[in-house]
Amino acid sequence: MTKETESRKISVLGTGGWGTALAILLHEKGHRVTLWGATPDYVDLLRQKRENSKYLKGFTIPTDLTITSKIEDAQCEANIIVVAIPTPYVRSILEKGKDSYIPGTPLVSVIKGIENETLMRSSEIIIDVLGKQPVILLFGPSHAEEVAKRLPTTVVVASEDDELARETQNIFMTNRFRVYTNPDVIGVELGGSLKNVIAIAAGICEGLGFGDNSKAALLTRGLSEIIRLGVAMGGRRETFSGLTGLGDLITTCVSPFGRNRFVGEQIAKGKKLSQLLTEMNQVAEGIRTTKSVCKLAKKFHVEMPITSEIYKVLFEDKDPMTAVNELMVREPKSEIEFLP
User: Fold this and answer.
1) Which of the residues are catalytic?
2) What pTM did the predictor assign?
């Protein structure tokens, strides 16, 4: 068996749609996979039904793919740990499993969010809890359902350690799941997180009945905001033209299945955020990320008018149409940054 196809013991923390899809993908590639969930009752249901009916309906979980609610069992002897826990819960869950984590075990984060209280990215949260450990990102335009259907998907692995990035690339790569590498951890992580805010705006456009002109403008100017903040925080400008910038932004804003776009669409149709949060059974990362991004924009002195208006719509009950009108009548500017 070659290094590229060597079987590893991999644990996936998180039984959401993406965690489940990755667990199935890794199992199909021949790895020994354990899927961990925080809720014992739901884990028992997954073991019995072998289907994640709440988050990834219609896809069978193989019988020899281990499912557990005991984090110490998941982390025991794992060669790699995939962290697929929503941002609001990742810190507390990692704290809970800290004693059973074996230092030096690589952690692959697929979390696309920024913590409200600390403004830390997912990789920073992991290191803050577990200490300086090998953390790799796996980001990109990748709906869980499409990966589970084995539709062609392309993502990015990001790490400052080139050897670790290439090793992770080989572990995940299949003939339907292509993986590139990128050393720009900050840019990849910010691109994958900030796009969720613009996806809420895309949903508002859809809910208000706007056309293709509006949507094209939103994606273009939204990407400009992502680039401005991303570069100010240390990301590389070219990263935001790649899979975790433009690519992830297109998928999240265009797909009718995206949770963040759904939030925007429902708000534009008159629902309140509190009602949506009660009704939704999944986390829409863009809601909390909007708060973090507004704080970061202020901290780094970056102008982000779309994000600012989304914040006001979400948390100050501003009328979505009024927000759009005020964006349209802002002071005239050059499209090209830094020109007078």
Assistant:
1) 195
2) 0.94
